[in-house]
Amino acid sequence: MPTLNQLIRHGREEKRLTDRTRASDQCPQKQGVRPRVPTRTPKKPNSAPCKIAKVRLSNRHDIFAHIPGEGHNSQEHSMVLIRGGRVKDLPGVKFHCIRGVKDLLGIPDRRRGRSKYGAEKPKSI
């Protein structure tokens, strides 16, 4: 606890806030290349190998991004577009890959929530 004299001389220091989006440069989406294709297991009560992508963005930042949906065609050195949005179960994963854009294909035969997974509208019978 500082004395009154110390506070008069130095004052209180402002708490620095960390920037959660410094990798995205305040952009809504960013393009990147996948150098690796790892999987990761979630935090304690849940368990499943979750598909994530290590992405080197166009501004040279390396981040981890989650690949939503079941199955993907993404390989090493494929181009992906990422958006914000963290995954609560996976520590350090603060971005999502956008399906149906660049080299990451959408999910075929998906009926519900199609816009989130880059799926085409099914042909009416």
Automatic annotation (TrEMBL):
Q: Which Gene3D superfamilies did the record assign?
A: Nucleic acid-binding proteins
Q: Which SUPFAM superfamilies match?
A: Nucleic acid-binding proteins
Q: Which stretches does the entry tag as region Disordered?
A: 1-48
One MF term from GO for this chain? structural constituent of ribosome
Bias (Basic and acidic residues) ranges: 10-23
Q: Which UniProt keywords apply?
A: Ribonucleoprotein, Ribosomal protein
Alphabetical list of Pfam families matching this protein: Ribosom_S12_S23
Q: From which domain of life does this come?
A: Eukaryota
**Biological process annotations from GO:** translation
- A cellular-component GO term for this protein: ribosome
Q: Which family does it belong to?
A: Belongs to the universal ribosomal protein uS12 family.
Q: What is this protein called?
A: Ribosomal protein S12
Task: Tell me which species this is from.
Answer: Vitis vinifera (Grape)
